[in-house]
Amino acid sequence: MKQWPLILSIARTHLLTKMKSTITAALGVTFGIGAYITLVSFMTGLNGMLDDLILNQTPHIHLYNEVQPSEVQPINRYALFNSDLLQIRSVKPRKGQLKIHNAPPILKNLKSREDVVGVTPQVRAQIFYLSGALNLGGVLVGMDILEEERISNLGDYIVQGSAQALANSDNGVILGIGLAEKMSLGMGDRVQVSTPGGAVFPLRIVGIYQSGLADIDNTQSLTTVQNAQRIMGEASNYITDIHIKLADVREAPAMARQLQAQYKVQARDIQDANAQFETGTTIRNLITYAVSITLLIVAGFGIYNILNMLIYEKMNDIAILKATGFSGLDVQNIFMSQALLIGLIGGLSGLLLGFGLSHLIDSLPFETEALPTIDTFPVNHNPMYYLIGITFALLSTFIAGYLPSAKARKIDPVQIIRGN
Amino acid sequence: MKTVLEARNIDKYFTKPVEYHVLKDISFTLPEGQFTSIIGKSGSGKSTLLYILSTMDTAYEGSLYLKDKLITGSSHKHLARLRNEYIGFVFQFHYLLLEFSVLDNVMLPALKLGLKSDEEIRHDAMEKLRMLHIDKLADKKASRISGGEKQRVAIARALINNPAILMGDEPTGNLDSYNSENVFQIFKQLREEEGLSLLVVTHDEDFARRTDRILEMEDGRIIQGT
Q1: Of A210, A218, A199, A80, nearest in space to A154 by CA
Q2: d(CA B164, nearest CA chain A) in Å
Q3: pTM assigned to the model
Q4: Contact A17/B114, CB-based, under 8 Å?
Q5: Domain for residue B8, yes or no?
Q6: ipTM higher than 0.90?
């Protein structure tokens, strides 16, 4: 439309001659949007960090065998007692193997699926760490460490040594940092482990890892699958756990159910294992948005007030514009574009403010024992938030500008001119 | 002779504060190229009539024709367009947009009409200012010029779209005698040199006596001049 440059130039002149109110109104939006960007970046950064801490150490689907009692007890099979109420006291778990039956073909089959990004076998063994006269209970996990490093962020948590060093050695072990401290061991030292059966094996420490979760760091150490099988005295098909990473994590629950039925193993998916984390994330997001929207509503009222005042001051101008042939809609557009210009300018500087503040927070040191990979505050610089921010700014100024400008549209020029 | 404006049986009531019959069955025609003045005492309804004729006031009964076309009942948008194109208006108070320059004030209605390029409009506006001997003020802010100058700027603005009729509501009412005379001479010159139709409401009987035709109003009726 040809009229827009004219309407915008009138709007611009009004804004420039009322510089103070314009700046006040724009600052309201600036702080609203700036606070939104800062809050949402910081909050989602924290969420991401917490998710990393817990969820990324959890496989999308975990296949394992569980010790459990038989569902059908022998007495149930005896036809003579069919009509009786059977009561068995002190049911004991069924003696069975902890290994996953037929693990190698299952692994092969899973690897060939397209929706699976990676599959790693694990051998978990209960062992004791021998330190002088002391036996410390713990867990030795044999894993395909290089594949595990590829599909998870395990590598980030190995604070000394490397996964490659473990893969290259035939009796290496990566010790949890808590264990290493308890036993005063370091890189290159030897540690003796014993199986529940009493066999003792010496292992060489090729790395130390710190997951950030004390329970794990104090008990668990990592070695190769072959090593773990050798220590347990088991054959090379002895696999106790399978970790699966999917291309799309949302498919985990459905696929877990399917695998459980197909392979007759226990399958636990990530959402099942970490339901409470989702809740925490949702609530933090809710708080972020509630605070941001409140700030924007306050800014919106500021704009509403200032436009109302402006229109009151500009009654004569409005009458003149109407008398010389501007329609009510033109007048409304003049004031709407003022509101939107305030929103745009305030919003853009808000984005800049938010950008600056979130980068400032990002650069602040944040060191904690629990998180070896993090040395500054976590901030999520997602461009999407900037898009949402500017949309928010325009939307709130549009709403705040609408009522006063609709009033301007309806002003009767005759009343103004004759009333003088 | 062509008519510019025709009113047929115009009635108007005020409902506030009490119902009051302000215009009673007013009919008249304005031929092209005539300088007409409306006089009457305060409260006789002359300004009310003028605002109805200007299309800004739409709450009346009867019908109004602009250049032989019925405009009563048109949409506000359409009326705004008609005002923009055919009617120039000069008020008692100068009513310029004070934050804009003199030139911008004069250009605005033409920019709104949008028939010419910005360059042509700027040129036309300078022409009008020159004609009224205020071209020196073009770049000044409208808030920085004197009352007489403001009224001349308002006249230049009213003329920018070469309207069919120029209306004035006490255009000299707020000016000293020197500036009043000046404005009158400008109107007269427009009528003689450009053949412009003029309709002016005034208190000033000297002013009215020198126009082509006087409509005298009393108690909502035209008692003389039709």
Answers
A1: A210
A2: 14
A3: 0.70
A4: no
A5: no
A6: no
